[in-house]
Amino acid sequence: MLIDLLLLLVPAGALGTFVWLAQGAILPLGGLDYLVITPPARTLAIAVGAAFLGLVVLHRAVSRQTRSRSISYNWPLFLLFAALLGPFAARHAGAGWSAPLAYFTIDLRLWLAAAVILLWLATLDRHLHGVLRAAVSRRLSPRARHRLALSSLTALVVIVPILTTPHLRFSGEVHGDEPKYLRYCENLYQGRGFEVGEIKNIADLPPGMPPKIGSDLRAAAYVIPIEIHDLSVDAHAILRGRWHHAFNRAVYEENWFVQGKNGGLYQVHTPGLSFLLFPGYVIDRYFLNRTSLFHPQFPTNPWATETTLLLIYAVWAIAIFRFFRAQTGHVGLAWIVAALALLSMPAAAFPFQIYPETTAGLIIITTAGYLLFSEKRRLSTAFAVGLMVGYLPWLHVRFGLLSTIPLIWMIVAERRRPKLAGSFVAGYALVVSLFCFYVYHITGSILPTALYYTQGAANAFNPHAVIPGTIGFFFDGVWGMFAHTPVLLLAALGVPLLMAQRPAVALLAAMLFAALIIPSAGHGYTAAGGTPLRDLVAVMPLVWAALVEAAVAYRHSRVFQVVFAVLALVSLQTATAYNLFHVKEVGPLVDQNVSGWHVNLLFPPLHDGVLNPMLLAGWIAVVVVLMLISVVRLDIVRSRLPRVVERTCAAGTIALLLASLAIVGWYSRALPHREESYLMPPATARSIASSFR
Question: What is the DSSP pairing of strand 33-37 with strand 265-267?
């Protein structure tokens, strides 16, 4: 018994020392040197002693429960030594290995601690023969577990963004296209409809002026009959064969403004998001603000407006969770992947950005769930879903092609129930027709894309950029998917499984993804220097659907579990760093860590025109080989192969994967080993050091 207690000193020492170091700081000194600041030695003694007493008390309780004196369940605590030895290992590593080692052992140490605690609890539960899990299961019915999953996920995706976005949360500073969406809100508030040429600054309006929604309605009632008459005249011109008639008579101005066909200044960006934000904007404008410090036309503090965005984000999380639960039937797995999908890039960066991406994402995942998993379909529900899908072009024109996919799917899938399909089409056609009428009011053309093709407008789509843009979306080191969310590399494992086991999910996901990535790549995958992958946020959960399938198939594999956990931690750390230091003027990732390193530095910077073909080929090979591994695993393939051939194929694909990773490692040596924009500035390091004096 005494020997068992003494053995507990080792995990207690690891835990106590980790807590002791966490109260200090590790700072870069330049080169390979790191300054380690620790609290007094007595603090270490107290931390180790408290950890030892806690483990002793726990061990006695566990021993009585299991009638075993084994302390093997404490082995996860030994992983904390990786963080304890981090500064030493990084300092004595070679120049090429120093920064990555510092990243994994120093920058990730808090994430490592959280993972260790979860692993330790799981190991303890297995040692207790599932007592902890059984206790939870007894107290919670399946319905209660589902409610707990929904409530905890909602709380998580609301609290985490608020805590990790100090520069963006409820900020009145606007950048990029954000003023376009708020300008519609203010214009409607002033009763000026959609013509923004005469919008007034808040300071020039009477203090406490209420919203003039009545003026908007009266103007609409006056304009609509005129536009209907003009539309009928143009329709007669078309019927008479006058195709040479210039319908689009708007003229492009700078900065995405156009002069309307009858004069007036209008925005190319559409008002769909503004309609949703308007109730919150009215609250901000009329009740909560009297100043406009950041922009003369918008209130200083958009509390209610950005709360609306945060609520949309939370509802999106619930919709993603329900989609994954319907896909797999696993509540816990659906919760984990839904949380990862929302708290990693790019979705993690958008709870407080005034863009339509999260709203479009909510519509897409809700519609996909309805099309794939809904069993009881009513005419009213089909009509409502059709309305939602038809609203996508109102959010942004690039969602126009995306909106046609559910329409086509519904028509084909419900061809034997024409009333149901017709109800969906009716809802879709109603909203899209209103959008075309809105575009006609400005341009004279009913084409949804007419605002982007006015006289003098630059070409918004380059077909020659689709292929390189698509490659950039996946593999670019500054703007790419895998560089910011490396856990999605494992989605390649799930693609063949999804295609074989859930072909309908795979087909719809592929069609929706292609319908957005093609126009986005043709427009430019860097999103005009904004947040990486901004244009793909709406369809990113469909990529996670492949990862969910891989997680179901490989959930009992220790290798998969470890790789998944490591890549998930890296993805969460990247998203957290992005949010903590993201200011709206800078789109790419910026950090202030100890190592100056991120996984992004392993990927080729395709956007700068300097192509490293072997490095790019290595990453493409990694993705392809991961898919091959799952192809070999498929029952339909294994049943037709002799056991020797099956094992040979499996061994061969593993060898190809290792070779691909070796190529990536070898050719990434030519890339920078440390990035200044990721490194903690000297002034920050000095400030932290001085706080311990």
Answer: unpaired
Rounded to 10°, the helix 109-127/558-581 angle is 140
* pLDDT value of residue 606: 87
User: Hunting for tokens 């999380």 — which residue is that?
Assistant: 317
pLDDT at 554: 92
- Which residues touch 381 (CB under 8 Å, ≥6 apart)? 370, 374
Alpha helices in 345-454 (DSSP H): 357-373, 379-390, 392-395, 400-413, 418-443
**Is the Cβ–Cβ distance between 299 and 207 less than 8 Å?**
no
Q: Whole-angstrom Cα distance, residue 129 to residue 65?
A: 10
DSSP 265: E
| Residue environment code for 377-403, b if the CB has 16+ CB neighbours within 10 A, otherwise e | beeebbbebbbbbbbbbbbbbbbbbbb
- Distance, CA of 215 to CA of 565 (rounded, Å): 56
Q: Which residues of the chain have pLDDT under 50?
A: none
How many other CB atoms are found less than 10 A from the CB of residue 675?
20
Q: Is residue 396 within 8 Å of 272, Cβ to Cβ?
A: yes
CA distances from 288 to 162, 273, 285, 325, 512 (A): 20, 21, 6, 40, 40
Residue 87, phi then psi, degrees to nearest 5:
-60, -40
pLDDT value at residue 379:
93
